[in-house]
């Protein structure tokens, strides 16, 4: 069974930083693209970043370019999202995602709240 477990969220002031982690199990992690999404109440989930299986290719939502960095450690079956220069509009629940065996799998999410 695929499992994704996010951690690392919290309450931070504008301009602060957080490192989100997503521990994966139940599939061959190193073979799969991994993605981070975020969602605020009343809005659709939006793709923030994704990273190729080997980690060499990455892409980002325009509004987070230069502030967010996605990375992965295939030895630890973990994908990360380093988020810097946080803004109030980054407040959201952040989810990691993998498309495995023909379907999307999601973690439970980790809440990031940016407020002074």
Percent helix among the residues?
under 10%
**Rg (CA only):** 13 Å
Q: What is the typical, i.e. mean, pLDDT?
A: 97
Largest sheet, in brief, is:
7 strands, mixed
Choose one word for the global shape.
globular
As a percent range, the share of strand residues is: over 45%
- Model regions low in confidence, pLDDT < 50 over at least 5 residues: none
Oligomeric description of these chains: single chain
Please report the total strand number as a whole number: 11
Structural class: mainly beta
Beginning-to-end CA distance, first to last residue: 40 Å
Q: Count of helical segments?
A: 0
Order of helices and strands: EEEEEEEEEEE
Could you walk me through the main structural features you see in this protein, from its secondary elements to its overall organization?
By secondary structure, this protein is mostly beta strands. It contains no helices and eleven strands. The chain has strands spanning about 5, 10, 20-25, 35-40, 45-50, 60, 70-75, 80-85, 90-100, 105, 110-115. The strands form two sheets. Strands 2, 4, 5, 6, 9, 10 and 11 form a seven-stranded mixed β-sheet that branches. Strands 1-3-8-7 form a four-stranded antiparallel β-sheet, with no helix packed on it.
